[in-house]
Predict the 3D structure of the following.
Amino acid sequence: VRLSVDDQAALRKAGELTRDKERGLAKVREDEALETLRKRGMQIHEFDTSVFASAALKLQDELAAERGATALLEQIRRAARPLP
């Protein structure tokens, strides 16, 4: 059974709203979880991950170019961008 164009658009919109809501809640949930762990005596060490992120981007670019997937990688990156 195929969905009508209107139903497809409604489903896509619902998915986008759900994605945005979940992304917005992720940071709040992470902060709450870390605070709970701290209160229970766990020592949390935070460190700068920007060096790793930068290296990962370069490697992703190289692998995507080798496999002819640069357009797909850009599409994934656009979808994964944090909300403003």
Summary: Residues 2 and 8 are 9 Å apart (CA to CA). The helical segments are 5-39, 50-66, 70-80. The chain has three helices and no strands.
